[in-house]
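testing teh design pipeline on a random one, pls ignore if ur not involved
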């Protein structure tokens, strides 16, 4: 199996999240491009949410690169494992901005949210979290 370009991984994650939201009854708007502050806007039953999507191509990747100072307050974060190496369906981990901030392991020059830190029912596939207030 050939690798897809790294810029396609992020876009693939955004499309998968948008499709899953739509399947769950949300109206979805995507922002396409490199210089954006939010990837997806979604609305359902007068509830509007802003979502930032982070994706990894293979499950063997240890996590998602993210700098602590780049996390936006009031935004949901959906971390996607595309599972391309196993040819399985993507797995979604849903966090509030506060939860995402608490999971960042910040190093001097980079930050990361480890996959193992989100592998619980609190995050994994917890789409209902979007319908609650931040």
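output:
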């Amino acid at each position: 199996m050939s690798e897809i370009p790294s810029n396609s991984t992020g876009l693939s994650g955004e499309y998968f999240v948008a499709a899953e939201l739509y399947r769950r009854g949300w109206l979805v708007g995507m922002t396409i491009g490199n210089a954006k502050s939010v990837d997806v806007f979604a609305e359902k039953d007068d509830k509007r949410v802003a979502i930032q999507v982070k994706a990894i191509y293979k499950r063997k990747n240890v996590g998602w690169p993210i700098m602590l100072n780049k996390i936006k307050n009031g935004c949901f974060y959906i971390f996607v494992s595309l599972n391309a190496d196993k040819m399985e369906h993507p797995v979604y981990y849903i966090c509030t901005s506060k939860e995402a901030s608490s999971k960042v392991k910040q190093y001097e020059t980079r930050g990361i949210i480890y996959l193992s830190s989100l592998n619980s029912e609190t995050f994994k596939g917890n789409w209902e979290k979007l319908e609650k207030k931040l």
